[in-house]
Every structure is written in C-alpha cells, then in structure tokens.
Predict the structure.
Amino acid sequence: MMPAGQDAAGERDRDASPRRPFPLIRLARLLGFTEHRCPVCGTPVDAAGKDLSGPEAGMLAHGLCPACARALRPSGGGRCRACGLPLPWPAAGQPLLCGDCLASPPPWQGLALHGQYRGALRRLILRFKHGGRPSLAFLLAGLLLDAASCLPLPDAVLGIPQHKDHLRRRGYNQAHELAVALGLMLSLPVRPGLLRRPAAVPHQTGLTASRRRRNAAGTFRADGVRGLRLWLVDDIITTGSTLRAAGEELRRAGAARVDVLALARTPLP
C-alpha cells in the first residue's frame, strides 16, 4: 500500500489531504451553506451544464462541473480485453488479447474498465483514495456500472481486501467502498468476508511486475465461494498482480466465475 497522498507512480498530490473536515463544516456543506466545488478541478459548481444528457448529466448530480463530466467519458481505443492495457495495433471486431494474457491468461472471465489512469480520472481517484473522500464512491461506482454493462450479474460483489494494518492507517478500504456502492445500486449482496488478506504485502511502488507477483502470491484466503459468480472490484490496475493473486485464490476455492471491475489501468513503466 502506498503512503497517503501518493499515486501508483509514486507521485504526491498536493490537494489530496487525509484530514477530514470538522463535523460542523461537513454539516454546512450538506445543507448547502457553503460553496460547492467540483471534486476534480475545484471550480465552483452551479446549475451550468443543463444541456448535458445521459451519464454526463448523472455526473453533474454528484457535483462535477460540466467540463470534468465530459473529461470523464470512457476512453476509447483498442485495449486488451483481459488486462486493459492499450494494444499497439487497432482492434477490429472482437476485443483482442495482449501477448502477456495470451501466454498466461488471467483467472477472471471478464473485465470492466472505465479508462486509463490519467487526467480527470486520475485526479478523481486520488481524491477518493488518498484525500479522505469515501463519499465519492457512488460517483465512481456509476462509472464502473457503465463499464460493466457487458458482464452478467453476479451472485455477490466484493472488493480487494486490505490487511488490517493498512486499513487502520487509511481508515477505509476504497475497493470495499466501491463494492458497497455497486451493491446498493444493483440490489446485490456485498460479501467482503468471502476473501481475506491475512498477510501484509510490502509497498509495491517502483517494483517490477515479476516482483509484485511474487509479493502478492499466497496473500489471500477465500472461503464459502464454491459455485458463486463474483464481481471482484478494485480502483486501479497497475500490473494486475494483486488481482491475479486474488482471482486465483477465488477460483481455487471453487468460484464458478470471477469478473473484475476497475476504474483505471496505469500504463506500463
């Protein structure tokens, strides 16, 4: 796990502060007594953007400004249907697999990915993950829901678990918050107890993909998943080593199907 305020590339976001506002300030914001600002760019948000429609109009309801709502459109272009990496060649017809996924297929059947880890999406994830803003889970879950429209509905949803020491430091598990929001939106059971993380993993920032895989191997324990179809949720795919280890453990324990939902994929270093 990375230090608070630091993204997958090891950079620190100056606006991402772990401090939460005092209760009276939070209450004033809820009652509309303070100026509301876009969580991505910080500009004041008013009634502008009423001409937007579809998913972008829904984003305005979560407090985004029109410009950032447009910037959060799903990114196009061909990418691997298993890991989400951009492909070096144009994809025509059926989604293609990258060379790594052809050589070593991941343990999940489907992937729902909103976009690449950059721009407005990156800034929003940083606010959510390191800025003490778990309330952004519903906005981000809406992005995941659009991306997951091609996946069959599961029997249960769960987020990638954190070790208890990591959870204590941050105060919340962003993957679990996303899973809870998805479960509420779709009236699906959220079952975090199906997958545990009894072993802590060293900080992965700056490590190679092979080293990340070695660190993640054997860190998860699944129970009670036999015959279940599951959605496994995470915020960012960096190398995929954590998701691969979790997916392999779920399949080993008898899960009938595992699909992965993630907000963003980082580029290869």
